[in-house]
Write the structure tokens for this entry.
Amino acid sequence: MKRSENVALRISPPVKNALIHIAEKEAKKDISAVLLEAVLMLLSDRGISLPTECPEYRVLEGAAGTANANLAELMDQAIPIAREKSARWAAEYAQTRFIKVWTKIQEIDDAKLYNDAYEVFTDPKRTPREKIRAMEFRLESHALAKCARPLCLLALYRANRYICRLPRQRRWRCRRAGRQFIPTRNMARAKNDALDKLLRLRVAVAYLGEKEQSAWWSTRFLGSAGKRFLEFTYPRSAFAAGVTAASEAAKAFHDRRIGKGRVAHLFRLPHILEQRLRAILLSPDDSDLPSVVASKDAAILALTELSKEPASAPEGPIRVGDNTLLSSGAAIPKLAAFYANAFKTAKQTLPYFTAEEG
């Protein structure tokens, strides 16, 4: 049997010069010895072992050859058992996961998603699991991008759960006809002055509490770096995604300090208020909200403008009133004053509301 064969390799002059330099520096016979060593290291990294009768078999590997041979034999014996035991699970898992992704793509029936599927499934550099994960991520991004359109979100409301007050006659007709009522942007902005101020207050506090400002919570979604990251992931709703993520961190921070009982705070509002704020945040033409998070001074200025007069409060949770103040909008100046004073004096004042007076 032929012990070795010649292999021709085409390389550029810079690569050849580099190999010659390595051969001279390490006292190799020629550049073929350098190439052979590099190939053997690559095979070892890939988990490919050479038989002992191979001329290129390393002496260092031979010292531990017996142990390696025994391990390899044991592994070879375990492979058929593992394959047999896992075959049914693997088939069900793969089929379920793929069908779930492919069915979702067919339901959406978007040309861009089909193009993504073609590009991902034909990528030779990815394993099948990586391809499925990539498509799952594309589907999630597509769904979040769709949420940037308010009507897609607001269409989920039933006729008796509209966002604003309608004339009685129109409400009655909608219910009697059994039609699903889809609120428009103008309806979502009913009582827009109070809702705008409340959302502006939330955005300012969510930004000022982030790590780069006051470090109340450890997120950085509303800063410049976070904005660039979110624009890559959610190109159509980056600002809304940043506000939502920062608000979730702020809610968890307030919950730890205040509690989750019959209380409410700026980041844990009654359900109807949360839905109204969400609708406004997802409106495509709200262009002045990003200016609130342009800088720390801009956010503090926004709080100062929302507060009617300065207010000082001790550090920690402080009760402002009951939930009726939130519904009427009368609590906004008090909240803004407390938070503005807290961020200016570097103390953590956390105003909250109770379910009922007393």
